[in-house]
Amino acid sequence: MHIVACVKQTPKSDNVKIDPQTGCLIRSGAASDINPFDEYALEEAVTLKEQLGGTVSVITMGPPQAEAVLKDSIARGADKAYQLGDMAFAGSDTWSTSYALSKGIEKIAAQQPVDLVICGKQTNDSDTGHIGPQISAWLGWPNAAFVKRVVKAGEKSVIVERLTEDGTDVLELPYPCVLSVVKEINKPRVKSPKGRILAKRAQVTKWTADDVSADKTKLGIKNCPTNVVKSFVPKREVCAVTVEGANGKEKAAKLVELLKENKYI
Ligand SMILES: Cc1cc2nc3c(=O)[nH]c(=O)nc-3n(C[C@H](O)[C@H](O)[C@H](O)COP(=O)(O)OP(=O)(O)OC[C@H]3O[C@@H](n4cnc5c(N)ncnc54)[C@H](O)[C@@H]3O)c2cc1C
Question: Could you give the domains of the chain?
Fold first, then answer.
């Protein structure tokens, strides 16, 4: 089985600031690490490889320093690493990012057929949760998002449980397919000493937009269909009201009045 895990380098802190002029996240100077959800994606890929045999490839699209998350992934059990790095990708929105990643995955698949792509549910910086489903759309492969358990990875298909608001869906997807996973799926391992040594020696394959035959009119801030019109940090307003009363019944009645007055009910 050949599994591709998508990993992104994101700021370590959730407290990411936005540049008010450009609407982009200010990433420079912020300490970075593997996106927390991608640890679960990678762990699932490595666990499946250990159960079934095969190869885990990791891919990232990002600036030169993003190579660190690929080496980190090797230390956690991945076998091969690919980085999409090119100024043509800079400023891409999720449509462009997922397109670039799908072209990278197509090229990886041309070298060794891919059965599964596993993404995290979302990132802790842009946080859209778009990329997994969008990669599946570009590739024309089936997708399951919010996957909380792989029930069975068979020869031709995988059965998964997907978290929904009111329960669980059980889905069977034929290979090749794309999963986005939630943190309930597993407990990521720590890097082993052997893994750290392998990571130091690992070669990361670096590809430009041309290397993956990407259409440059679909890439970068000038070509992506999303425009950040305005971005701002919402103002926090403290407006708590204490409802007084002799007992619970009286307080509840007053609360209902208050909610009606303010047209909440
Ligand atoms: C108009 C616009 C301009 C932008 N400009 C910039 C910019 O200048 N610089 C910049 O850094 N960002 C920019 N972004 C953000 C960038 O588009 C997103 O970070 C990127 O598309 C991924 O989306 P996400 O972080 O919401 O991923 P999600 O959809 O939340 O991520 C889900 C999963 O997809 C995978 N994944 C996501 N991103 C990657 C990746 N890069 N490589 C590998 N796997 C990945 C991971 O497995 C992740 O867990 C911009 C966004 C918009 C809308």
Answer: 2-223 (3.40.50.620), 235-265 (no CATH)
